[in-house]
Design brief:
One of its GO terms (molecular function) is 6-phosphogluconolactonase activity. This protein is an alpha/beta fold and about 240 residues long. The chain has 7 helices and 10 strands. The mean pLDDT is about 95. It binds 6-phosphogluconic acid (6PG).
Length: about 240
């Protein structure tokens, strides 16, 4: 299924449109299965979305399991923590506590043990494919200037991981170390929402959406979603995207 691309005027209208779409997906998942499994993105872009999502009245948070797409190996009260960002913008503001929030504990030098522990919880609680891959209802992603999604950076072992659902990212040049969901989990999501805003992302968006990828595929171009992939771009990030 080709990616769907929505271009919104600015980061605020992007956040509003993405919040409405997230609400629709989570409502449908809860109505269908009684629960919904949501994985949050980190970084700056999702902040405005999370503030709006907390205020959407149509989500029964008591039925939503909140997971994390990735997390930095910092304390949960560190300004760089994705959990802290999600707590401050979403989790402390939803009308009722979510069914369960699953922070990703990433604690060197035990990163691989932490990855295995998170994978075990994920596989115990989320629906699994016939091959045992967790199938989340909605995975939110941002896009790095180098084309990374979650913490799947170009040329890393985590990006190449095809078996484990969670990988440690502890390679030179990536500070702090991290944990990340791997491509198989992203690809098995029912819905992937990629949120990209700002002129500093225009070049990577243009390259990521180019018809004829040149050179080594970007991590985002390695996505092979079985469900839907929806790009939410603001006009600045979409500056190089051909308009229909
Ligand atoms: C992280 C994110 C990462 C992020 C991109 C974009 O932990 O940093 O998961 O993948 O989404 O780096 O970050 P911005 O939204 O801050 O541009």
């Amino acid at each position: 299924m080709p990616p769907q691309i929505r271009i919104l005027d600015d980061p605020e209208t992007l956040a509003e449109a993405a919040a409405a779409r997230c609400e629709e997906i989570l409502r449908r998942a809860v109505a269908t299965a009684g629960t919904a499994h949501l994985a949050l993105a980190g970084g700056r872009t999702p902040r405005a979305l999370y503030r709006r999502l907390a205020r959407r009245g149509g989500i029964d948070w008591r039925r939503v399991h909140v997971w994390f797409g990735d997390e930095r190996a910092v304390p949960f009260d560190d300004p760089r923590s994705n959990y802290r960002m999600a707590r401050e913008t979403l989790l402390e503001h939803v009308p009722v506590p979510p069914a369960q929030v699953h922070p990703m504990r990433a604690r060197p030098p035990c990163l691989r043990d932490d990855a295995e522990a998170y994978a075990a919880t994920l596989c115990a609680l989320a629906p699994l494919s016939a091959l045992g891959v967790p199938c989340l209802d909605l995975v939110l992603l941002g896009l790095g200037a180098d084309g990374h999604v979650a913490s799947l950076f170009p040329g890393t072992r985590a990006l190449a991981e095809r078996d484990d659902p969670v990988a440690a990212v502890d390679e030179p040049g990536i500070e702090p170390p991290r944990l990340t969901l791997t491509l198989p989990v992203l690809d098995h999501a029912r819905h992937l929402l990629l949120l990209v805003a700002g002129e500093e992302k225009a070049a990577v968006v243009r390259r990521a959406l180019a018809e004829a990828p040149r050179g080594e595929p970007l991590p985002v171009q390695r996505l092979a979603p079985r469900g839907t992939l929806e790009w939410f771009l603001d006009a600045a990030a979409a500056a190089g995207v051909p308009r229909e």
